Structures are given as structure tokens and as C-alpha cells.
Prior knowledge:
42% helix
Amino acid sequence: MKCANCGAELKVGCIYCSVCGKEAQIVSDYNLLEDDFLRAMLKEREDKIRQESVRNIHQGEEKEEKHSQKKEQQGGRSSKSSQAEKAGKSAKQKRRVKKRLIFAVAAIVLLIVLIVVTVVMVNHGRANSFDYQMDQARICLEEKDYRAAENYAAHALELEEDSLEAKLLLADIYVLRGEERKAAELLEQVCSKHSENREAYQKLIDIYDGLKDYQAIEKLSKEVENEDILELFSEYLPVEPEFDTEQGVYINEFSVGIFTVEGNRIYYTVDGSDPRQGMEYQTPILIEPGNAVEIRAIAKNSYELYSNEIRGTFEAEMQKPGKPWVSPSGGSFSEAQEIKISVPEGCRAFYTWDGTTPTEHSSQYMEPIMTPEGNNILSVIVIDKYGMSSDVFRCNYIYIPPI
């Protein structure tokens, strides 16, 4: 008899099929066709079961291989076949590592490129930033890195050519580097363009003073019109001298004095020439009658700088002396008289008794004279040191001695 489920032969007395485990249902086998059909079905079923078993076996083996490989990675022993498989896997891992390495290198290269681009962009921005260049120049200046400070300040000036701030900073750097002449040239340009900038003038004056170039200070002062800035030069420029007498025309001789501040020397001329080549003033200048004198004077200080020049024209008019005073001034006398003539200082008196007008060749009065006998006319003149003669003084003396 055969199992109705799988067609297997049933053992005698069994109530369950030994193949499929189903409850035995007896089927008669007298039908050959059905028997063949059942046999085909059983074979197909058998093949499926066998394929499933083989599949399960392979899956078990793969799991066992993975487990074995894991044990080998943990230090266990492996067989030659597992070593071969391990080598294959190692090759795969190397390929994966290689790929990962390529990706990592590419990522690193990309990162470096990004960093370089960022740095270039930042540097480009800084290189074109006036404020950044100025800040760096000041930092370098504080650190006494004058060369770097100069480079930054010069670049800032290239970015803003008219920057007064950059020019003044660059001038300071030149001075600290010992390039005073270079700093002076830059500040001269600044002063020429910014004539009201007190700071630039002060820096330039300080440089000239350090170089002892006082002539440059004097020259610079002549270009300044601003009174506030001119005060910066007060220490270096001498004050112009002054006359103690107003220029003009005076009677008789007189003297003109010149004065200035202490420590300065005065030089002057009376012929109209340059006082720088004149005489050094010591005492007042005498103006004699008949002369018109132009006095030019200038002061010179300890820096060997000259002040502004002063000029004045002074004239003393010729004026003849007044008539002399005579005592007694004529009369009749019975006794001889002692006649005295008053002679002004600096003058000489001359007289005659014959009525003629005296000259400097006539008798000169030296001491009291006695009246001569008879009726006589005394004529007296006074001549000053300039040769000017007074009017004639005449008086009549009658001296008749008693018999």
C-alpha cells in the first residue's frame, strides 16, 4: 500500500507515513496510471527537498566561514583555504583602502585649495585695505621693525596718494631709521600742499634743528603767512632791531641809537649797502649837520640767522651859531675895560677892532681882552666846528683915559 500524501510505500501496521509523517491513508495501487503520476509527484517533491537541503548546507557553510574568518581576525588559527580566502579579502580591503585613500587625498587637496584661495582672498583684501596697512605700520613701529613699518606705510600711501596721515607716519618712520633728509623732503611737500597744518611744520622744524640746518628754518619761515604757524619759528628767528629816534630832519647834530633783544648782535651801514657786510653796532650813530644819512640795520642771533632789515633816513640841517655875547657890550669909559666874550661849546670866536668883519683868520678870542684907547668898534663872530659862522656882533667902545 502507498501513502496518499507522498506515495511512499507504507510499512505493514504503520498508521503514519515514514516519509512525510502524514497520517496513513491507504490507497489501492491497482491503477498504474495513478501510480506513475504519484511517483512523478513524489520525485519532484524529493528534488525540492534535496535542493532545499543543499541550500541550507551552503548557507551554513558561509556562516561557518564568516565565523571562522572572524576568529582568524581575533588571532585564531586558520587553514590554508581560509588563508587564501583571507588573502582575497585582504586584496578587496586594500582596494577599498586605496579608494578611501584616494578620496581622502582628494579631500585634503580640495581643502588645501580652499585654504589657499581663502588666504589669497584675505591677503588680497588686506593688501588693498588702507586701514589695514596703516594699522600694521603702527604695530611694526611699536615693535621697532622700521623696515616693515616703512613698507606698510608706503603701500598705504600708494592706496591713498593724498593721505596726510600716511605721509606724516612715513616721515616719522624715516626719522627713526636715520633718514632725516628723506623725511624732510616728504614734509616739505606736505607743508607746501597743507600750509595750515601745524603738525607738519613742527616735525619739519625739529628735523632741521637736529641737522643744525638753521638756514633751512629761515627759508621755510619766509613761506609762511599763518600767524599761528609763525609762532613755531619764534625760537629761531631773531627779532628785528629798532631805532631809538624817529627818522626825519633835525636841527644841528644828533645821535641815533639802535637796540634789539639780549643775545642778538646788530650790524649796520650808513652808505645804503647791505648791513650783513656792515659794521657791528656799538655806540649811537652821530648825524652831523649838513648830512642826510640812510641807516640800514639788521640783527643776528646765536643760530647765525638774520632778522628782517630796518631802514631809516636821518638828516641834520646846518644852522649857523647865534651871535656871541660880549660884556661889557660897549660904552664910554675913562678906564680901560676887560672885555669878555661868551663862546658856545664847540665854537671859536674871532674879532677885529677896525670895523671890518672878522674871519677865521682874524684874532681868535682866547681870554678877556682890554679896550684900546680911543673910539673903537669891536666886531665879533663865532664859527662852529662845521665851519658855520654866526652873524657879526658889533659894539662901540670909547676909552679916553684922564689927563
